[in-house]
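Batch manifest line 319
LIGAND: zinc ion
JOB: complex structure
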Amino acid sequence: MSGMAHDFVKNARVIIPERSPTNSMGYRYPIAEEYFGEDAKNQLDMLVKEGLMVREFYQRELGCPKCGSINLIVRFLCPKCGDTNIVKGEIIEHWTCGYVGAEDEFKEDKCPKCGKKLEKIDVDYGKLGPMYKCLSCGEVFHTPDDKLNCANCDYTFSKDEAEEVVLYAYRITPKLEEDLEATLYRKNYLIEKLSEMGFIVEPEENLYGRSELKHEFYIVASQGKGIFKVRIVIDLLSALHEVPADDVFLFYAKALDLGAYRIILVGIPKFSEEAKKLMNHHGIAYVETQTLQNSAEVTIRKLEEMTKATHVFREKQEM
Ligand SMILES: [Zn+2]
Ligand SMILES: [Zn+2]
Ligand SMILES: [Zn+2]
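JOB STATUS: finished
ARTIFACT:
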């Protein structure tokens, strides 16, 4: 899990979708977007795949068969010619000449076709009730065709063609929630110990490398000021069996970019032989621990060892 996903899951409990006419898909997950930007939905699905969140049914909507957007507009159309230029109103049939039209076409009760005056209802003309008339082809009808138009890609289609779009809510799994609390506890423990040792834990927004890229680390702590400032980067790398050298290398590149003075890597459950060679070669301190549970303790122990060694080193230099 990336740092971002970690923070997100930590703060999120239930994420529900919101209708949004400005979004191309017609809905969004605002809370998730704060963390993941526009890619929020994919990230949520990733978290589901990783077993960190569960997805549950929230709502069923009609969507565009072309682009999947639920930003749809309902359009009424003439069943004969398909035009949208239709009006609803009282429809009159002039039996004298057979003309059928909307009430307001019969200005001053005169038939627009034959010009004769309407005399008496149910004698020379009849009211057909509220109906529609197409101003394009003249067709009069009770029920217009309805079509859906996609506001995103402008595709027009019938209801039958519409795609079913299920909107999901996302919920953090209870197991994970417990884990996170423990994780937070462990991190706080580590921060506390670090400050007892005279380190200041740096806020995340400080973590820009020389490349001006922002990096994410588990903890970055520093001691001293200016040119005497030393930065220690601590991170946890986990793998199913062993943490490969590639992971260590990627981490090392980030830490160098940040200007790390010392690096401590915690491998869960262990590092590969290659990874160890790499770390020994580059002076990266590491510890291995079977589980995350005691990662904080082993890290602190390692750090204490290192600071003692550093003191010895400094004293030797001063002699
Ligand atoms: Zn028509
Ligand atoms: Zn007439
Ligand atoms: Zn569409």
